[in-house]
């Protein structure tokens, strides 16, 4: 259970609830045992088999450990005999029944309070693990998610964390309540009959060995279920995101097959896991019945033939044996939960222990202003094997707009990813005002920049809350001003609730041009000194492009901008245009200068239709 040590930091903040749970579990085990022990004097009174003692025993007459037991047994019988003499046998029986009921009441009260405090422990651990996972997911680099399925990550944060929670609770059962119940009960069983208890315990190791063999393969089967559960959620996520394409290409049947294959595998793996889990209960129950049968045979001989054990003592012994079998069965189930949770813990710990290659240096500094230039010096970069950028050098002076153009795959968007430090360069360096961006705090670096991407990333919330991501404490007037600059107020003011209108999942209630203008308004509200526009108009129709282009021009006034463009009509007025080809600079200059060169840029222009 090494993973429990790794997760112990999640338990420590709630240790007081763990202690209270342990305390009440001790009481539960104690009163649980006493509740069965109290049956014996009740049966003695009911069957009129209690030993009548009229003279109070003297402690000095009893020696050794066995004498200790005999003394208190006779002392109890003395008080019972006196009570029967004074009040009658039936009244004493009522008193004994009340004692039995009191023991069971105290046992159940202790059980309630142990679970009461356990609720704070289990739900607190669940909350903290999920919070830390979420923070970790946010902090991990973009590259991590290009290799992982979103559905798998969702499965780890939801289903796997639930399995860990159940596993941790099972361990508390394994360590406290059930073992103590067994220990207390066995102590009493030894006091009733040493010979019978030793005989019974010959069979317990055999039972434990059989049960342990059943659970050996649970971790492997549980891991397969969790992995397939992640695949299932990923297929569902991709389906919901791509419904238009699926319907447009009549691909429903193909995706049905993919989904059905995943659910079929999940069905198979879940059945295999369930079969092994379900085998625990009948196995432990049958072995328990075998033990009870052995006790009946051997104990019956002691009662009926040898007369070395009284009938009430034997009946009490049988109930105590049952009191051992019930927690033993619970322990076997809990051990299966631990094995299942172990597989889930490995998947969760894989995320929690993942080290981000993009992190702040120990001596990273904060920078709140931009004064001179962005300098990209001899950088080379590759996502996997092939270089996307090769010895690329570029300077972007303050207040100037630089446009990057070129065919797909030429490395334009990679520049945006590197400047914002979503990735780190393999060679060379990128600096702002002479400070290498790797020496700046990531939050400080990104605080200097506004980003508008080709895909308008909006959230299922109001217009206002989507814009406020740019500046959380902005007033409504500031939001409206940003919307006006982004050329978005003209449609926002006509929405049912204005800026308080919910725009649906991913802004689904808006058109492409409207979504893009809201993205621009968000960047305007942030008001950063550096703006990065990554093909902000490439997915729009001509009319929407015109409106968005006006918004971009409003935003870029007196602002340093790196513009990555597919449509060349949007960057004619840039101070400098960089034409890229296979990760290198093919040409650079103004729009007019590049046309005059009659080179790569002019060919790109001729391929597109200018208005």
What does this structure look like?
The chain is 63% helix and 10% strand. With 611 residues, it is of the alpha/beta class. The protein has a six-stranded mixed sheet, with helices on both faces. The chain has a four-stranded antiparallel sheet with strand order 2-1-4-5, covered by helices on one side. The mean pLDDT is 77. It has a domain at 2-352: ABC transporter type 1, transmembrane domain (ABC transporter transmembrane region fold). The chain contains 23 helices and ten strands. It has helices at 2-6, 8-11, 15-37, 39-47, 64-87, 89-139, 142-147, 150-192, 194-200, 204-214, 218-241, 243-248, 252-304, 311-352, 412-419, 442-447, 463-467, 476-485, 489-492, 512-526, 542-556, 591-597, 600-607; strands spanning 373-382, 387-397, 401-406, 427-432, 435-436, 449-452, 530-534, 560-564, 576-581, 584-589.
Task: Summarize the entry for a quick read.
Helix content is 63%, strand content 10%. The protein is an alpha/beta fold.
Keywords:
611 residues, alpha/beta, ABC transporter transmembrane region fold, 6-stranded mixed beta sheet, 4-stranded antiparallel beta sheet, 23 helices
